[in-house]
Amino acid sequence: MTGPTAPAGRLDSAAAPMTGQSDRRPCAPLDAWRNFRNRLVADPRFRRLAAALPFSRLIAEQATRRIFDLCAGFTYSQTLFACVELGILARLADRTMTAEELAPDVGLSAPAMERLLAAAAALGIVEPCAGGRYGLGLTGTIIAAEPGLAEMISHHRLLYADLADPVALLRGRRDGTRLSAYWAYAGRPAAEAVAADTDAYTTLMGATQASIADAILDAYDFSRHRRLLDVAGGDGSFAIAAMQRHPRLAATTFDLPCVAARAEARIAAAGLSARGAATGGDFITDPLPGGHDVATLVRVALDHDEPTVARLLRAIHAALPRGGTLVIAEPIAGTAGAERITDTYFGLYLLAMGGGRTRTFDDFRTLLKAAGFVRVRRIATRQRLLCGLVVAQVGSPPL
Ligand SMILES: C[S@@+](CC[C@H](N)C(=O)[O-])C[C@H]1O[C@@H](n2cnc3c(N)ncnc32)[C@H](O)[C@@H]1O
């Protein structure tokens, strides 16, 4: 990823150490307790005793299950993947079926289908019903009902392939990962990208935008603004949702030219051309369009390293008037309970993709202040694990 460096002495390298943990502050008494606990648990006599006593046996069993989950998680993901790929969830959405009935539809033998359904039932994806039939389980019902989730799960085939050798990735092998080919802008200049390079990810992002957009629009009231600039706004889904929610809001989607063309068509198809438009450009090399009083960056910053994000924030600062607002929406590192999403999933996903990281609120505040923003604050959304908001106002230009 090209671009100037951030202000001297701050987050000034794409290889800057991860600071994603900065909201959580380890302390010495906790360290001492951890050392004591770990010494105790490492002792085989203690573990034997714990497994024998009724209460500690429950804790020991939980630990066994956690370790097993860590070892077996890959088989869980692949079970879900197979269910989605074979259309099992869609087939069971409104009825129950036996393995024998499902098998010929999806090209499996009945025993193979029974094996998959048993695996999926153990994970709550499907549920055994009367008469040897299967219906959706709670987890399967939510996955089937959530728009775009099936596409997200399908595209994970790229992630699984890239993670076949995680140690090589961690040692710096970046070339040829499937995710870096999929995300045409990952780790390389994107200005030359054509539709064939961007269509797949643009469709995926559009398909998964609806619930995110709803959560953002519920958490932050855009009716106080007149003109929205959605930077790197993909196929225009967020801008369309914002205009539909607020009838007096106008919106521009800015993205790479081939992506902006899709946004323009979708805005027209939604009957919003009088208030909505799309502008093509490269946010690394081109100025952003002016005339807006609020800008959004939805699921964008995490894809990029510090120099690019610093530059992007300065470009947004320059494009907005004094007092204008920037709303950043994405998974925020350090959010309690979201560690597996921000640090494990995105940590490895973005490594395979070739750039970017999730950031804590403190990381964003540092970057935003360096770009000249003031009044930096965070707002939780009802999807707080997947998407938090960082909101800031344009102050004086940075020196
Ligand atoms: C992860 S997608 C998010 C899209 C949208 N905001 C959403 O949440 O669905 C990132 C977007 O950034 C755009 N993008 C990446 N690099 C860009 C660049 N240099 N200039 C303009 N857009 C860029 C991509 O084309 C893509 O649409």
From TrEMBL:
Gene3D superfamilies: 1.10.287.1350, Vaccinia Virus protein VP39, Winged helix-like DNA-binding domain superfamily/Winged helix DNA-binding domain
GO terms under biological process: methylation
Transmembrane segments: none
GO MF assignments: O-methyltransferase activity; protein dimerization activity
Ranges for domain O-methyltransferase C-terminal: 160-373
Location of the O-methyltransferase dimerisation domain: 69-135
Record's keyword terms, sorted: Methyltransferase, S-adenosyl-L-methionine, Transferase
Region (Disordered): 1-26
Descriptive protein name: Demethylspheroidene O-methyltransferase
